[in-house]
Amino acid sequence: MAKRQVTAIVRIQLPAGKATPAPPVGTALGPHGIQTMEFVKQYNAATEDKVGQVIPVEVTIFSDRSFTFILKTPPTAVLIRQELGIPKGASTAGREVAGTLSDAQVTKIAQIKMPDLNAYDLEAAKAQVAGTARSMGVKVG
């Protein structure tokens, strides 16, 4: 049996367990001939335990119009906002402070993000999380 040829890889950020075939799913997958309702059912079933989070997904589309998908960890900014309980970061980072992350909270977020980061160890992952926090106007320390 011949290998299936990959025609596209699509990355989308969707709410866990609540995806619908409306945009952005339909507009991202429709042009590739994928049945969006089938993808939505599979995605919602895979993420029903994470409702309330934003889960990025990487959809690999094959030439026979079949697909597979890989779930990623939530974006770092979303994890920081959830950890601090704030609706958004500071509007002018560096001038105003939206909150303060402790070292333990940075470590917790880095451990969650570790599978998707290009970091060799936890310290490098913590540095990436701290950088994201600073760009959101969140103090680290």
What about the largest sheet?
Answer: 3 strands, antiparallel
Unreliably modeled segments: none
- Helix segment count? 5
Helical residues, percent: 25-40%
- What is the general shape? elongated
Give the end-to-end Cα distance, rounded to a whole number of Å.
56 Å
- Mean pLDDT, rounded to whole units? 82
Can you describe this structure?
With 141 residues, the chain is an alpha+beta fold. 35% of the residues lie in helices and 21% in strands. The chain is built from five helices and five strands. It has helices at 25-29, 36-46, 76-84, 103-113, 122-135; strands at residues 6-15, 54-62, 67-71, 99-101, 138-140. The strands form two sheets. Strands 1-2-3 form a three-stranded antiparallel beta sheet. Strands 4-5 form a two-stranded parallel sheet. Strand 2 (54-62) and strand 3 form a beta hairpin. It is elongated. 22% of the residues are buried. The model has no long low-confidence stretch (mean pLDDT 82).
What's the structural blueprint in terms of helices and strands?
Layout: E1 6-15, H1 25-29, H2 36-46, E2 54-62, E3 67-71, H3 76-84, E4 99-101, H4 103-113, H5 122-135, E5 138-140
Parallel strand pairs: 4-5
Antiparallel strand pairs: 1-2, 2-3
